[in-house]
Amino acid sequence: MTSGVTIAQAAAFASVTIKTIRHYHRLGLVDEPRRDGSGYRRYGSSDLLRLVQVRTLAESGVPLSEIGALLGADPQRFAADLAEVKRRLTERIEELIARRDLLDRLANGDRALLPDRACALLDRAADLGFTPDEVAAYREGMVLARALVPDGFDDSLTEPEHALDDTRFVALIKQCWAAKDWEPDDPRIEELATAVADRFLANPALLAIPNGLQARTDATRYGLLNHHGEDQEPAMARLTTLVETKLRSAGVDIPHQ
Predict the structure, then answer these.
(1) CA–CA separation, 195 vs 36, rounded Å?
(2) How far, rounded to the nearest angstrom, does the alpha carbon of residue 46 sit from its chain's CA centroid?
(3) What is the DSSP letter of 231?
(4) Residue 212: count of CB within 10 angstroms of its CB
């Protein structure tokens, strides 16, 4: 009776594919048995045991490049190597969990890119009557600020939180949003810029917004943040420039573009 089984039978017994067995052969993880008189390779019990061991370690997350050394190690080294594989797998699992959580946050919109405190500000702006488009623009500015000034982002939220307590300022900001549809040379822009600048000067707490932003960044990043989106809204660009000019004239340190 012929000793051993064919590669197809070995694959079935070890719950792998023939292609996998040949791959193990190429990597040197399983020795190729000799051919019998008919030219077929015959796999004995020791070969099947090796196949099962390699398959089990591979399914457990051990890289194929490490399995050979692992199977040749003494019990103490084997246990230590498995512990290291477990540590790496744990890190990978934590990374995958974090990615899954990020997908959940993406499904919830703002919370994927912004902390809860910033999201609370967006919710508050919506409650105060800002339109969805205005809240979306506010969100974009926050995401940009967090990317450009990551270390100071959380602290920078204090000033806008206080600003939303100023009902007159909130009303002016709503007027500013309405102004984006005006022509750049509309005389109302000058009047609105004066009103906004005067409100900043009348409420020193509001000045913490431009002052705090400037303190946390440089002139280039300040410009990117404070003038975000103005290339598509000329009226808003002129309004912002006029407000900054008026504040500078009053002694407020505003970076030049």
Answers:
(1) 97
(2) 49
(3) G
(4) 17
Phi, psi at 35, each rounded to 5°: -85, 150
- For the entire predicted model, the pTM comes to 0.52
Q: How far apart are CA 240 and CA 141, in angstroms?
A: 15
Continuous H helices in the chain = 7-14, 18-27, 45-59, 64-71, 75-107, 116-127, 132-148, 153-156, 158-163, 167-179, 187-202, 204-216, 219-226, 234-249
Whether the CB-CB separation of 11 and 20 falls below 8 Å is answered with yes
Spatial distance between the Cα atoms of 193 and 245, rounded to a whole number of angstroms: 9
- The token pair at 165 is 């307590």
pLDDT along the chain (257 residues), means of 10: 81 94 95 86 91 92 91 89 89 87 67 81 92 87 81 80 87 90 91 92 72 56 61 82 88 71
- The pair of three-digit structure tokens given for residue 220, joined into one six-digit string: 């280039």
With CA atoms as reference, report the closest residue to 217 among 135, 132, 150, 138.
150
The type of residue at 45 is S
Cα dihedral across residues 147, 217, 256, 226: positive or negative: positive
